[in-house]
Amino acid sequence: MAPSELVTADPARRHRLIADGFAFANGGVLIDDGAAAVVAESGGYCLTRVELEGEAAGRKSPFGGPLAGFPDNVTRDDDGLIWVAMVSPRDPALDWLL
């Protein structure tokens, strides 16, 4: 499985790489008024924060601890709470392979 990328696309359809190396990125949501994004990584059982502005742009950091299952998209409610759908629980055989 090739690492996933986070890119932006403007109205003229120009793309710009923000960050790469995600373990099967499977959804993302903007936080902090668009200064950062949270990306669901199904292959890593985790959420990753990606800085989008300033000198730190592209920097990745864990967003919470490891998850109990495969994250499958994220969204944010009006209060700023991030909701994560999980398609299935962790797989011990896959944990061993990773």
What would you note in describing this structure?
- The protein has one helix at residues 92-97; strands at 4-9, 15-22, 25-31, 36-41, 46-51, 60-62, 69-76, 82-89.
- By secondary structure, the chain is mainly beta.
- The chain has a 4-stranded antiparallel sheet with strand order 3-4-5-6, with no helix packed on it.
- Strand 7 (69-76) and strand 8 (82-89) form a beta hairpin.
- The longest helix is centred in the last third of the chain and has 6 residues, at 92-97.
- The chain is globular.
- It starts with a strand and ends with a helix.
What is the fold's blueprint, element by element?
Elements: E1 4-9, E2 15-22, E3 25-31, E4 36-41, E5 46-51, E6 60-62, E7 69-76, E8 82-89, H1 92-97
Antiparallel strand pairs: 1-2, 3-4, 4-5, 5-6, 7-8
List keywords for this structure.
single chain, 98 residues, mainly beta, 4-stranded antiparallel beta sheet, two-stranded antiparallel ribbon, 1 helix
Task: Please summarize what this structure is.
This protein is mainly beta and 98 residues long. It is built from one helix and eight strands; from the N terminus they run E-E-E-E-E-E-E-E-H. Strand 5 (46-51) and strand 6 form a beta hairpin.
- Largest sheet descriptor: 4 strands, antiparallel
The number of helical elements comes to 1
Helix content: under 10%
Span from first to last CA?
A: 12 Å
Shape: globular
Spatial arrangement of strands, main beta sheet: 3-4-5-6
Oligomer: single chain
Arithmetic mean pLDDT:
92
Strand content: over 45%
Radius of gyration computed on alpha carbons: 14 Å
Strand and helix order: EEEEEEEEH
Poorly predicted segments: none
Q: What class do helices, strands and sheet pairing give?
A: mainly beta
> Count of DSSP E strands?
8
